[in-house]
Amino acid sequence: MVARAEKEKRLGQRGVVCWLFGLSGAGKSTLTLGLERSLYKEGRVVQVLDGDNIRSGLNHDLGFGELARRENIRRVAEVAKLFAQSGAIVLAAFITPKEALRELARDIIGDKDFFGVYVKASLATCIGRDPKGLYKQAQAGAVKQLTGVDQEFQEPDVMRANLVLDTEKLDYPESLKKLHAALAPKFRI
Questions:
Q1: Are 98 and 160 in contact (CB under 8 A)?
Q2: Rounded Cα gap, residues 140 and 137, in angstroms
């Protein structure tokens, strides 16, 4: 068996899971893809796990009820943990609407490897952005169980989040720069 430390030494980086959470439209996916590109340009090994790519594959069998959301986060956290143990930097972007779900992910991944980022934006701002048209569809009754509309989003205990990025106050370049700077000490050897 090849030890994790050997893998990390070969890659020149430490495995870590950066878990971005917040309402749909807050900027999680945009920041995740920007950070992926930035880390890739640095020569880093990075894997993105996003609600869209996970829900269409690994978790295609899950709905959006409370138990299904829990199972979605549990599965993603287990996969993220495996990638981190191989030395990869994992960027996981999931709404993760409840504190209990964030704690579940943190417990599975392990506090040492988990870096929680609250991508903060008000519901009104997210509705105004609505990049996937989900809020418009929810208002028309075509989408059910949308967090922020039909289901609650619990504000996190900011002491438990490693970083809070308020995308209403910070523009994209500033948010991306802050995210990269805060995460770098976690993956640098």
A1: no
A2: 5
Q: How far apart are CA 118 and CA 141, in angstroms?
A: 28
pLDDT digits (tens, 9 = 90+) for 73-108: 999 999 999 999 999 999 999 999 999 999 999 999
Mean pLDDT to the nearest integer, 64-71: 87
DSSP the chain: ---HHHHHHHHTS--EEEEEE--TTSSHHHHHHHHHHHHHHTT--EEEEEHHHHHTTTTTT--SSHHHHHHHHHHHHHHHHHHHHTT-EEEEE----SHHHHHHHHHHH-TTTEEEEEEE--HHHHHHH-TTSHHHHHHTTSS-S-BTTTB--PPP-TTT-SEEEETTTS-HHHHHHHHHHHHHHHH--
Per DSSP, the residues of 129-161 read H-TTSHHHHHHTTSS-S-BTTTB--PPP-TTT-
Structure token digits, residue 46: 């990075």
Tell me, which fold does domain 4-187 have in CATH?
Answer: Rossmann fold (3.40.50)
- Each residue's pLDDT tens digit, 108-146: 999 999 999 999 999 888 888 877 766 666 676 666 766
Structural domain spans, the chain: 4-187
For residue 141, give the amino acid letter.
G
Q: Which two tokens stand for residue 161?
A: 């989040």
The pLDDT of residue 51 is 82
